[in-house]
């Protein structure tokens, strides 16, 4: 029975729900996009500026726009090995006498090439005065100090004009950019040897749970190795932040309080995993609540339990679910853009693409789903199990498949969104 069919005067029955999203009346689950919009609105860069050599800038964030100190290319130069002259030349056969000498990359040709003459020129050589076009050496026959070739050839043929790539004084890279290997080439080419960067965002990682032992140590009966901390520290490293290991804690409120105090003094943001729900042993949310600065975000996402987001002594704390798959998904979907904002990168969106599904599935409405997936033969394959404790599936996967908030009936061949790990900045 739906509420609008209830006769007047009778109590409205609670809506029927048969999955884990069944909630007391009046409690809403925040859609992923709303949760993200809130983070985007409330966070801003917290990292100070520093100057650094461009060669040390890989993966770092530009604090200011980079202005080209010189044009690229600095001078008009030949794109090929051939012969240079003043163009254009019309259709038909042409014979031009060669001048003495040649223009080669790095060695200037002294003097000008008179009209009606040509000069030997090599790739990368600045075009001498009197030259604006180059004919490819393969298209030329050379005899007795003259070249013969067939036109037409446009003025400017095979010449890269000065500044065609980047003009001197132009903004070559914008503030917020995370420097890539290609950017290092660009910075070199435009004569920039030093850049203004944001200091790296220091992000502390804490695991919580009485059942956890340090990875690599003997886990007794009833204990499991802490899988989240190595994963999250590595994710932070890949994202370009400065990961700080704040350790593994049992479900002990006093110890956690101490760790948060110490962490807040050392880092710009803290990620915890475990204990973020509202149960007896969920000390992260309890403590943040106590500090009066916590929001429990019940985000309509699978996998993911509520996130505990709060400020601890002014430092943002992202309390992630303990389940490793949920911790990874929530890190990539929520913590990554939030940390990017804090780090001065601006807001970042996951970059995915639509590919045909290699499977069929019915999805319920009301929450967004991220499933471990990979692409084979151009089709998206999900991991065999949606079980969110299956760490091996994270390792098997090459990214996540995103199914939108609404109801969906995916048939084999239908387009589905696939976001490779690289699309999340990993
Ligand atoms: P919690 O969010 O603390 O209720 O934990 C949810 C599930 O994730 C439990 O089965 C925990 O044992 C597991 N878990 C929590 N933290 C970790 C961790 N760091 N490594 C591996 N599993 C974890
Ligand atoms: Mg726990």
UniProtKB/TrEMBL annotation:
Pfam families: MoCF_biosynth, MoeA_C, MoeA_N
Domain called MoaB/Mog: residue spans: 204-341
GO CC terms of this entry: cytosol
Top enzyme class: transferase
SMART domains: MoCF_biosynth
SUPFAM superfamilies noted in UniProt: MoeA C-terminal domain-like (SSF63867), MoeA N-terminal region -like (SSF63882), Molybdenum cofactor biosynthesis proteins (SSF53218)
Substrates-to-products reaction catalysed: adenylyl-molybdopterin + molybdate = Mo-molybdopterin + AMP + H(+)
PANTHER family attached to this UniProt entry: GEPHYRIN, MOLYBDOPTERIN BIOSYNTHESIS PROTEIN
Role this protein plays: Catalyzes the insertion of molybdate into adenylated molybdopterin with the concomitant release of AMP.
Protein name (record): Molybdopterin molybdenumtransferase
Record organism: Pontibaca methylaminivorans
Source taxonomy: Bacteria, Pseudomonadati, Pseudomonadota, Alphaproteobacteria, Rhodobacterales
């Amino acid at each position: 029975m739906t509420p609008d069919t209830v006769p007047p005067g009778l109590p409205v029955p609670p809506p029927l729900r048969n999955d884990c999203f069944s909630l007391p009346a009046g409690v809403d689950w925040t859609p992923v996009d709303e949760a993200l919009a809130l983070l985007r609105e409330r966070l801003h860069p917290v990292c100070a500026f520093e100057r650094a050599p461009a060669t040390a800038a890989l993966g770092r964030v530009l604090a200011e726009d980079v202005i080209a100190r010189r044009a690229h290319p600095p001078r008009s130069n030949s794109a090929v090995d051939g012969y240079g002259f003043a163009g254009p030349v019309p259709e038909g056969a042409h014979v031009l006498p060669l001048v003495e000498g040649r223009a080669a990359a790095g060695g200037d040709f002294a003097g000008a090439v008179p009209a009606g003459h040509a000069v030997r020129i090599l790739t990368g050589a600045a075009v001498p005065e009197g030259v604006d076009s180059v004919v490819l050496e393969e298209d030329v026959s050379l005899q007795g100090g003259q070249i013969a070739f067939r036109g037409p050839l446009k003025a400017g043929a095979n010449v890269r004009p000065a500044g065609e790539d980047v003009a001197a004084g132009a903004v070559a890279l914008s503030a917020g950019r995370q420097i890539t290997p290609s950017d290092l080439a660009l910075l070199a080419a435009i004569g920039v040897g030093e850049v203004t960067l944001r200091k790296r965002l220091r992000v502390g990682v804490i695991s919580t749970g009485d059942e956890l032992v340090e990875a690599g140590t003997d886990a007794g009966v009833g204990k499991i190795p802490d899988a989240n901390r190595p994963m999250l520290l590595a994710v932070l490293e890949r994202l370009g932040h400065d990961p700080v290991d704040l350790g593994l804690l049992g479900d002990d409120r006093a110890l956690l309080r101490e760790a948060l105090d110490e962490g807040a003094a050392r880092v710009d943001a803290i990620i915890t995993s475990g204990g973020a729900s509202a149960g007896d042993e969920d000390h992260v949310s309890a403590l943040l609540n106590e500090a009066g600065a916590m929001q429990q975000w019940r985000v309509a996402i699978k996998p993911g339990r509520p996130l505990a987001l709060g400020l601890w002594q002014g430092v943002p704390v992202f309390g992630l679910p303990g389940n490793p798959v949920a911790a990874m998904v929530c890190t990539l979907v929520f913590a990554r853009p939030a940390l990017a904002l804090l780090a001065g990168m601006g807001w970042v969106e996951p970059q995915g693409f639509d590919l045909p599904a290699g499977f069929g599935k019915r999805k319920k409405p009301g929450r967004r789903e991220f499933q471990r997936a990979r692409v084979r033969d151009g089709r998206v394959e999900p991991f065999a199990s949606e079980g969110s404790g299956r760490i091996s599936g994270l390792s098997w996967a090459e990214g996540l498949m995103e199914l939108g908030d609404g109801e969906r009936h995916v048939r084999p061949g239908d387009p589905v969104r696939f976001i490779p790990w690289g699309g999340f900045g990993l």
